[in-house]
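Here is the promised in-class demo. Please do not try to memorize the tokens; focus on the logic of going from shape to residues.
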């Protein structure tokens, strides 16, 4: 799609969107697309969920298609309208739209907000802030488990909050990136293997698996390179990623989580509680060293370097393709 003469390249769009997100994050005054997607999903769930397996599967499929399709269509229409504006204005507008698909700054800030109370010895506030970025229950987690959960979230979100949106921006611009964000939001809200969502969220979860198949594996590989640049345990990261990537309920999330676990020489995963029920999850990694608060800061650096390297790779691939 030709946004404007200055934005013929999806690569330019992705790079400018990434830099803008890194600089300003998500302004509170702007109605964020993911928030609107979340409201639509909540409304659809209340309307369609029945508790009957076959009906819930079909209803969940309908809800998924009704959110993903329009998200891409609205993004396409917005870009089409913006392309009618003068080039400089169009550039700023589509750059801002692209930045809403990426969550680099938000992810780094969220991790820092967990680290802050931990350093102050305030485990209650650390749990509360952790609950904003994970699906598991956090009210009874000790410091060790808060740290591990935060690191797991950083690893997984490096893929679904940064690398995957960039991948789809390069592949198909804002409409495809917004379709991905819709699938990801659906998975985070209804893609659970609980009694309520097992059938209702199954289609959404599988669609998210498809979307993340390539980005998750790419994230893990790039994270190993980033670990080497940051003088972390790159060899162990590669070993654990290869060995333990399947030790996860998701066919994708285990890749970046295993790479991060190896990079720090720690163990992630294990039993967690969701919606009042304990879920048995395999362990990922090996305990070479105890988990430390400082690892949250180091993991933020690992996340950022992984994001930048991924961006460089996508730019080079785009240049080679053209």
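The designed amino acids, position by position:
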């Amino acid at each position: 799609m030709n946004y404007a003469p200055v934005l013929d390249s999806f690569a330019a769009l992705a790079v400018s969107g990434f830099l803008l997100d890194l600089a300003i994050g998500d302004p509170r005054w702007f109605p964020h697309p993911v928030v609107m997607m979340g409201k639509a999903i909540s409304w659809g769930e209340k309307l369609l969920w029945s508790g009957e397996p076959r009906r819930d599967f079909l209803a969940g499929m309908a809800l998924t298609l009704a959110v993903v399709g329009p998200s891409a269509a609205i993004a396409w229409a917005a870009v089409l309208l913006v392309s009618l504006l003068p080039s400089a204005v169009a550039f700023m507008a589509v750059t801002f739209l692209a930045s809403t698909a990426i969550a680099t700054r938000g992810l780094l800030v969220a991790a820092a907000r967990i680290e802050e109370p931990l350093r102050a010895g305030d485990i209650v506030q650390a749990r509360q802030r952790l609950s904003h970025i994970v699906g598991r229950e956090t009210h009874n987690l000790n410091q060790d488990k808060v740290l591990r959960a935060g690191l797991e979230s950083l690893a997984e979100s490096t893929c679904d909050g940064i690398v995957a949106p960039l991948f789809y921006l390069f592949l198909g611009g804002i409409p495809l990136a917004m379709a991905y964000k819709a699938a990801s939001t659906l998975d985070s809200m209804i893609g659970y293997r609980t009694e309520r969502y097992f059938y209702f969220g199954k289609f959404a979860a599988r669609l998210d698996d498809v979307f993340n198949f390539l980005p998750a594996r790419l994230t893990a590989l790039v994270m190993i390179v980033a670990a080497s640049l940051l003088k972390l345990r790159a060899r162990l990261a590669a070993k654990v990623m290869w060995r333990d990537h399947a030790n996860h309920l998701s066919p994708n999330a285990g890749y970046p989580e295993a790479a991060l676990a190896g990079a720090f020489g720690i163990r992630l995963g294990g039993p967690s509680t969701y919606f009042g029920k304990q879920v048995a999850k395999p362990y990922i990694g090996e305990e070479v060293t105890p988990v430390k608060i400082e690892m949250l800061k180091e993991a933020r650096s690992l996340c950022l370097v992984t994001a930048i390297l991924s961006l460089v790779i996508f730019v080079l691939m785009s240049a080679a393709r053209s």
